[in-house]
Amino acid sequence: VRIVMRPTATVREIARVAATIETMGCQAHIAREDKRTTIGAAGSPQQLDRDHLLALPGVQEILDTRMPFKLAGREFHAQPTTVRVGDLSIGGDALAVFAGPCAVESEDQMLATAQAVKSGGAHALRGGAFKPRTSPYSFQGLGREGLQILDRVRRATGLPVASEITHPEDVSAMVETVDILQIGARNMQNYALLQAVGRVQTPVLLKRGMMSTLEELLMSAEYILAQGNSQVILCERGIRTFETYTRNTLDISAVPLLKQLSHLPVIVDPSHGTGRRELVEPIALAAVAAGADGLLIEVHVDPDSALSDGHQSLTPARFEALMERLRPVADVVGRTM
Ligand SMILES: [Mn+2]
């Protein structure tokens, strides 16, 4: 719900309406567009006494807003959000490229990959310690030991680390050992997990569920934001369609759409989005051309012996070549690398 103030409304009148919204149990978000002020009411709009609000001085009308994602949406937050991780910012002019293996397999593998992707131009490292796999017999990750490896590798290389969290109980261990908490596609609607990562201030990388609409993705972001964590990065990673040549169908239109609907940074994962090594480069280029703020790319020092997702992982050499080819595309769309 949005309260539109008259152009002549005073600062005092605006403040009074905002305070009244708060006493009715909603959160007030004041926005100024052109010469008018509007006040968004987030929370439970059914709690609002509309007649009372309409009678307050300076109020012109009350609009029902279509977008159910009040905090993730652009409606009350026109300026883009920049997520900061140390020196790295995601959502600004510079592209942010996350690279690394699907899974943490050993300290040697992780350190070698981290050094290789760093020299190839990556800004952050990815690697899963907890791996939710389709089959219970597949490699499930090194767990807590994997987190310790990630912590040592980020200290050794200076690269910030993103890693998937699969259980609310792991939040405290993970905020000590990694820089970005990743919510995987399978957990996008695990609301207890979303709320748990919302209660800390560590940035969250939220992947789109493989059968989720963009509105559902934004509502999941809303769960995190509503708990107080404003540092959320959205990630398009492909959705399930009838096509079988690719692992998923990467929804390239999701990139400009999410940027229109939301102020949150949007990155693209062409590795899971296609599931095929040879498609990673062209789709990465397309994602940046479409306006993505960054990329999440699987890189393994020896993809053929990877314990997970080797078929879609690039070698460090191919990753470096991709970064070179990205440069002119980034340039054309006004992004720096
Ligand atoms: Mn993977």
Number of helices: 11
Secondary-structure-based class equals alpha/beta
Q: In sequence order, what are the helices and strands, one letter per element?
A: EHEEHEEEEHEHEHEHEHEHEHHEH
Q: What is the count of β-strands?
A: 14
The level of helicity is 25-40%
Q: How far from one another are the termini? A: 40 Å
Care to describe what's here?
By secondary structure, this protein is α/β, with parallel strands linked by helices. Helix content is 35%, strand content 18%. The protein has helices at residues 11-23, 50-55, 107-119, 144-157, 171-177, 191-198, 214-226, 254-261, 270-274, 277-289, 316-332, and strands spanning 2-5, 27-33, 36-42, 59-63, 83-85, 88-90, 96-100, 124-126, 161-164, 180-183, 204-207, 232-236, 266-268, 294-298. The chain has an eight-stranded parallel beta barrel, surrounded by seven helices. Strands 2-3-1-4 form a four-stranded antiparallel β-sheet. α4 runs parallel beside α5 (171-177) and α10 runs parallel beside α11. It is elongated and about 70 Å long. Manganese (II) ion binds next to loops.
